[in-house]
Design goal:
heterodimer, A: about 300 residues, alpha/beta, seven-stranded parallel β-sheet, five-stranded parallel β-sheet, B: alpha/beta, nine-stranded mixed β-sheet, 7 helices, about 30% helix, about 30% strand, globular
Chain lengths: ~300, ~250
């Protein structure tokens, strides 16, 4: 069985979410990685080094400079002729493009899988992860997005896949990239970080996130936020962890001033170790926390930063 | 020129309800559970109504699909400001591909300039229907929108992407799916709820539209996720740091 994994990248670097999707792909068959972009050979070379990858397909075209669904869909539809499974990480890019491909192939998409039972049977979260559905697809081609936190990352070295340049499908006049505003951060990316420190409404203001950042810096952690903190305007939406934001599963998740609404738990409850710091001892977050500290965060955070200053 | 807008609304278990998995694993209990409009679809209706209030939209058609009770969801959309409703009535479980095909058939009947949908329904969490509809129509798509601007013949959509925001220019007609920050939906006022009762709702069936809606995915079972046990309460920051280093060994 041939599995095509769509690489996530910015034409320069391969995004780590690709590695988790490759692991899911290897559970089904021989993995080919598609690198579609513009001037993106370095990404194809990185993809070729991923352990277990059989072949890298490089589609280099100015029309793919930004991952517009309207531009990439025809290419993926073409590649469906030679693959049994089309797979992408369940990122905003994958979620934007793959359903468009599935519809043209007249097949269902299986969204956000977190488990593989066999070549036709997959487990996926529904109701914000409050239930897990096992579904079977009888379609001839499986179009799948993969929840990164549910699959280990494949090793990004050791592979020696061949890079094959493929014909591209060229431009389109439906949509045009205008611009982007990416949040600049020296910290690790939220979904790939080993440690995440998140703040909620209890932080009180965006300024107070500095206290959280001081702790995050000591731990080499990414900073996240609850939807309540985003809705209150403390921080931007791309920091949001939860059903309506990002799904994370780091080794350590520190929830600070977060009550633990179902919608937030859906985004972090698969973390290995969860710490909750909240002055409200009734806060539901304590029901999922391995370590709970009932304490005013304005006392706890500076102490924590101090105590950690000896750590890496 | 003012546009015609079609909005799709789904009836789902209210987002405040803690769902319960049926003990036989056949699904999630929906009997005697409060149902509401999918929150992302409320944002879609609100956006359409704001376009009308700004003079950019002339006519708003709300569409829902599923059991007879979806009429209640349509009434909510009408009370928020949609002009009329269409219910595609069926007892068959509708999956996103079927929804997209039904919407395409309605788009061909109604010829809107813009279709707005929620990015995702909070029950099946698929996040597919808008993209699939755009594909079947051969239209551009502006998914996960946090801002929408319309000019003659084009739409500028700011999208919520993983690293921040992306802006795309789309030709019209187009499909837009809503993200949370696009707007804050209004509550329908009592006079508008009364007025909505008089607004028309057409009822059609998948057969009328000539669409095969048979599900492509079979749900074999639905289970509760593994539960996390509550851990220990600590007394001090020092104790926490010590446990993280020496017990959990994560720092």
């Amino acid at each position: 069985m041939a599995v095509l994994v769509v690489a996530e990248h910015d034409n320069e670097t391969l995004k780590p979410a690709t590695l988790n999707a490759v692991t899911a792909g290897l559970a089904l068959g021989e993995v080919h990685v598609l690198v579609a972009g513009s001037g993106c050979r370095a990404v194809a070379e990185a993809a070729a080094r991923i352990a277990g990858v059989d072949k890298v397909l490089l589609g280099d075209d100015a029309a793919y400079a930004h991952p517009l669904a309207e531009a990439l869909t025809p290419l993926l539809v073409d590649l469906a002729a030679t693959h049994d499974v089309l797979m992408a990480p369940a990122t905003t890019t994958g979620k934007n493009i793959l359903p468009r491909v599935a519809a043209l192939l007249d097949v269902a998409q299986i969204s956000d899988i977190c488990g593989i039972e066999d070549a036709e049977t997959f487990v996926r979260p529904i109701y914000a992860g409050n239930a897990l559905a096992t579904v079977r697809s009888a379609d001839p081609i499986k179009v799948i997005t993969v929840r990164g936190t549910a699959f280990d990352a494949a090793a990004d070295s050791g592979g020696t896949a061949a890079i094959e340049e493929i014909a591209t499908t060229g431009g389109q006049n439906l949509s045009r990239f205008v611009g982007q505003e990416l949040t600049r951060s020296e910290r690790p990316e939220l979904t790939a970080a080993r440690v995440v420190v998140s703040g909620g409404r209890g932080m009180g203001s965006g300024d107070n996130f500095k206290l959280l950042e001081a702790v995050a810096d000591r731990l080499g952690a990414a900073v996240g936020a609850s939807r309540a903190a985003v809705d209150s305007g403390f921080v931007s939406n791309d920091l949001q962890v939860g059903q309506t934001g990002k799904i994370v599963a780091p080794d350590l998740y520190v929830a600070v001033g977060i009550s633990g609404a179902i919608q937030h738990l859906a985004g972090m409850k698969d973390s290995k170790v969860i710490v909750a710091i909240n002055k409200d001892e009734e806060a539901p977050i304590f029901q999922v926390a391995d370590y709970g500290l009932v304490m005013d965060l304005f006392e706890a955070l500076p102490q924590l930063a101090d105590d950690l200053s000896g750590s890496p | 020129m003012a546009m015609k807008v079609l909005v799709a609304v789904k009836r789902v278990i209210d987002y405040n309800v803690r769902i319960r998995v049926r003990s036989d694993g056949s699904g999630v209990e929906t009997a005697n559970v409060k149902m509401s409009m999918n929150p992302f679809d409320e944002i879609a209706v609100e956006e359409a109504v704001r376009l009308k209030e700004a003079g950019k939209a002339s006519d708003i058609v709300a569409v829902s699909m599923g059991v007879k009770q979806c009429q209640e969801t349509l009434r909510t959309a009408l009370a928020m400001g949609a002009d009329r409703g269409i219910l595609v009535e069926t007892d068959v479980e509708l999956q996103p591909l079927a929804v997209a095909k039904l919407l395409k058939a309605l788009v061909e009947r109604e010829t809107p300039d813009l279709v707005i949908l929620g990015k995702q329904a909070i029950d099946d969490d698929c996040n597919q229907a808008g993209q699939m509809l755009a594909a079947l129509l051969g239209w551009p798509q502006g998914t996960f929108a946090s801002r929408l601007e319309l000019d003659d013949g084009s739409a500028t959509v700011t999208r919520e992407i993983d690293g921040g925001l992306e802006t795309v220019a789309l030709g019209t007609p187009c499909v837009v799916t809503t993200d949370l920050r696009l707007n804050e939906p209004r509550y329908a006022s009592l006079p508008n709820i009364m007025k909505a009762k008089k607004k028309p709702i057409d009822i059609v069936t998948p057969d009328d539209l000539g669409i095969d809606v048979a599900p492509r995915l079979t749900t074999l079972k639905v289970a509760e996720p593994p539960k996390r046990a509550a851990g220990v309460r600590l007394e001090s920051v020092g104790d926490l740091v010590d446990r993280l280093k020496n017990e959990a060994k994560v720092i």
